[in-house]
Design brief:
131 residues; Beta-Lactamase; 4 helices; PduO protein
Length: 131
């Protein structure tokens, strides 16, 4: 189970990384069911990235894979091409979603949006590592 305290710890670590790289971000944490536990929008982070960060967390939990890895497999000709149209448009196929694991089992996810894919993934990884 991902508790609110767990989500706060993940968000704090991710926010620290975002500050280090100088990129305001939206950071979301989802539980085992892909439901939102907590979200923050850093000052001056894009409003349009609120929804994207939440959907990245959902995607990472729904498929137990980073959204960066899913993106590579969902390009034309890939085994998951078209997956972004599933789940009523909740699937994000670019970097920034990372599963949260406990004893090797996925029990939630973090989603980050507001920078480049590389930045989003780095911030999400910082959050996941704090879990």
């Amino acid at each position: 189970m991902v508790t609110l305290n767990d989500a706060r710890r993940v968000i704090d670590a991710a926010e620290k990384k975002a500050q280090e790289i100088g990129q305001p971000m939206n950071i979301a944490v989802a539980d085992a069911g892909g439901n939102l536990v907590a979200h923050i929008r850093m000052d001056e982070a894009w409003i349009g990235s609120i929804d994207i960060s939440i959907k990245k967390a959902f995607t990472a939990r729904a498929f137990d894979i980073t959204t960066e890895d899913l993106a590579t497999q969902s390009q034309p000709g890939g085994q998951f091409f078209g997956i972004h149209a599933s789940n009523d448009g909740r699937i994000m196929i670019f970097a920034g979603g990372v599963p949260l694991k406990l004893d090797g089992k996925v029990i939630g996810a973090v989603g980050v949006s507001g920078g480049s894919g590389v930045q989003d993934h780095a911030v999400a990884m910082a959050g996941a590592e704090a879990f």
